[in-house]
């Protein structure tokens, strides 16, 4: 089995992948911690032959995790943000400072779509652009839905927006304080993504495929105005592309990769952008 770990500042996700069939056998999530308990926090390591890690947590968390895993598993791969990988050139002036989850998402999106806008809707919402040809432009970071709620100092009670909510419900004025807050932060998030996507596509002269991941991806997806694909395992896809361990991965197939709809034409994006600027 292959254990994939996506360690965030707050939540850490894991999945077990069959090394022979490349099928996903199980998955889970726990609060990020410095001391992991195999069999409780993560699967029993007796069945694991290799581990791949993406981590944006504090260095101590990563170091302790790697030390534990290397005592029990023969092969441990840790992803790093680099100046170039898999045909993509990192757009940061200091490439190592780009969050590795964003870098892996950009790499996965490029392998899948040959240029993309990769949006991760987690604690923060990150938006990264990779042009056809592999030039990563850099990106944007804005507060996620929960952080926006916390910034209003109203606590986190009732922060969760039902992922099955229709965008029409979330974009109308709220008639209770909780509704007003939830609808406001939703409007802020989807409006920012829609505008940033249109502005960058306009300035670069290319309509890019749009890929969305992260814990709030499903609900944010409902408010996006252009064709897109939701890819929950996008960071894992980057790990697979960087460290291919199965026959399917070596052939370029990433588990759970979605069908990506063709983007709308650049003229339509520009027309929508021009109209919004008139309002």
UniProtKB/TrEMBL annotation:
It comes from Halomonas shengliensis. Its cofactor is K(+); NH4(+). A monovalent cation. Ammonium or potassium. Its EC number is 2.7.1.33. Pathway: Cofactor biosynthesis; coenzyme A biosynthesis; CoA from (R)-pantothenate: step 1/5. CDD domains: ASKHA_NBD_PanK-III (cd24015). One of its GO terms (cellular component) is cytoplasm. The active site is at residue 101. One of its GO terms (molecular function) is ATP binding. One of its GO terms (biological process) is coenzyme A biosynthetic process. It is found in: Cytoplasm. Gene3D superfamilies: 3.30.420.40. Catalyzes the phosphorylation of pantothenate (Pan), the first step in CoA biosynthesis. InterPro entries: ATPase_NBD, Type_III_PanK. It holds the Pfam family Pan_kinase. ATP binds at residues 6-13, 123. Belongs to the type III pantothenate kinase family. Substrate binds at residues 92, 99-102, 177. It catalyses: (R)-pantothenate + ATP = (R)-4'-phosphopantothenate + ADP + H(+). It is an enzyme of class 2 (transferase). Homodimer. K(+) binds at residue 120. Keywords: ATP-binding, Coenzyme A biosynthesis, Cytoplasm, Kinase, Metal-binding, Nucleotide-binding, Potassium, Transferase. This is Type III pantothenate kinase.
């Amino acid at each position: 089995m292959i254990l994939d770990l996506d360690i965030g500042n707050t939540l850490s996700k894991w999945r077990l992948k069959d090394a022979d069939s490349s099928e996903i056998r199980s998955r889970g999530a726990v609060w990020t911690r410095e001391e992991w308990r195999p069999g409780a926090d993560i699967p029993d390591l007796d069945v694991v032959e290799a581990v791949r890690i993406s981590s944006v947590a504090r260095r101590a968390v990563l170091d302790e995790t790697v030390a534990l895993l290397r005592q029990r598993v023969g092969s441990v791969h840790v992803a790093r943000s680099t100046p170039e990988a898999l045909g993509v050139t990192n757009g940061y002036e200091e490439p190592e400072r780009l969050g590795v989850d964003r870098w892996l998402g950009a790499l996965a999106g490029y392998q899948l779509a040959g240029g993309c806008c990769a949006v991760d809707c987690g604690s923060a919402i990150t938006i990264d652009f990779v042009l056809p040809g592999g030039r990563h432009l850099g990106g944007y970071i804005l507060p996620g839905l929960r952080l926006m709620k916390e910034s209003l100092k109203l606590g986190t009670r009732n922060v969760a927006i039902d992922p099955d909510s229709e965008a029409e419900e979330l974009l109308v004025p709220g008639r209770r304080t909780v509704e007003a807050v939830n609808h406001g932060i939703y409007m802020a998030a989807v409006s920012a993504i829609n505008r940033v996507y249109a502005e960058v596509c306009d300035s670069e002269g290319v309509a890019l495929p749009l890929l969305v991941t992260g814990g709030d991806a499903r609900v944010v997806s409902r408010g996006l105005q252009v064709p897109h694909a939701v890819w929950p395992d996008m960071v894992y896809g980057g790990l697979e592309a960087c460290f291919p361990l199965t026959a399917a991965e070596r052939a370029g197939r990433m588990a759970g990769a979605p069908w990506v709809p063709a983007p709308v034409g650049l003229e339509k994006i520009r027309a929508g952008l021009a109209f919004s600027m008139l309002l």
